[in-house]
Design a protein that fits this description.
- The structure is a homodimer.
- Chain A is mainly beta.
- Chain A has a single domain (18-152), classed as Beta Barrel (Elongation Factor Tu (Ef-tu), domain 3).
- Chain A is built from no helices and ten strands.
- In chain A, strands 3-4-9-8-5-10 form a six-stranded antiparallel barrel.
- In chain A, strand 6 and strand 7 (93-94) form a beta hairpin.
- Chain A starts with 6 loop residues before the first strand and ends in a 15-residue tail after the last strand.
- At the A-B interface, strand 2, strand 5, strand 6, strand 7 and strand 8 of A face strand 2, strand 5, strand 6, strand 7 and strand 8 of B.
């Protein structure tokens, strides 16, 4: 169902690469209307990210970071919208000028505060996605890195 | 080729969803050794992101943002490393405690400064990926959003 002014791709785009779901995100948000527009890494509710058991060794050391970037697959989102009108103001905007879940590659990113790790489970704050959302990646947040080295030979 | 202490998954993980390449990233970094460890959104070189023509309407309004989040597919990366030893110190770390390109879903994220948009081309600073890297998403950076509304009924 489209809102006034929304436009879609005439032809579906092809697929070029494949994603593996590496775990599941558990939040208190059971329906779309309950999801905050953006997570709150300080005051938001505790959420749980559970990685699949075979990836436990890959989580080693993540607990050293307060701030973690989480990537997830917005599995319920349509992918063909070019322009969207998600807000009450009725304005139509290009999909890439929004953080809407509806996009050609429905990947969400959040920066969360890592409260603690218990094996393959992470307790975090700052997520805004639906309960049951598939996890696709975890990384230390960029902001946790200090001054970076410049590339050699390119100055 | 593995370095000392590095470990890999015994069995490949399956695939669960598909990604569409929506454009191409052009940087001055032609080989892996030239890529900076992290992009510099202020002093880094100008790079170009070109979206595929059918997505031009979806870029409308992105030029209102100074800071844009870019997601890309690290197409040369192996995906089976559980632990890695990427640094000169010889320490072995879990894949998810690193921002290394080698990960189960080889998706990179960068926050870039948007200098200007020319149709389907964006001129940006702050990328650290190889020339020719496939683009998978563009979003206004989270930090560009101001105080968010709390979810209704969840306080």
């Amino acid at each position: 169902m489209l809102r006034a002014g929304e436009t879609v791709l005439d032809n579906a785009l092809g697929f070029d690469a494949e994603v593996t779901f590496i775990g599941t995100i558990h939040t208190p948000f059971k329906e779309r209307g309950q999801c905050p527009r953006q997570g709150d890494a300080e005051a938001g509710p505790d959420c749980t990210i559970t990685a699949i058991p075979e990836l436990e060794p890959a989580l080693a050391g993540l607990e050293r970071f307060d701030s973690v970037e989480v990537l997830y697959w917005l599995h319920l989102a349509r992918r063909d919208l070019l322009t969207q009108s998600p807000k009450a103001d009725g304005a139509v905007r290009g999909t890439f000028s929004l953080r809407s879940p509806l996009r050609p590659n429905p990947i969400g990113t959040s920066r969360v505060r890592l409260i603690r790790r218990e094996g393959t489970r992470l307790i975090v704050r700052g997520l805004d996605c639906l309960d049951g959302t598939p996890l696709i990646d975890l990384k230390p947040d960029r902001c946790s890195f200090t001054v970076q080295a410049r590339a050699k030979g390119l100055d």
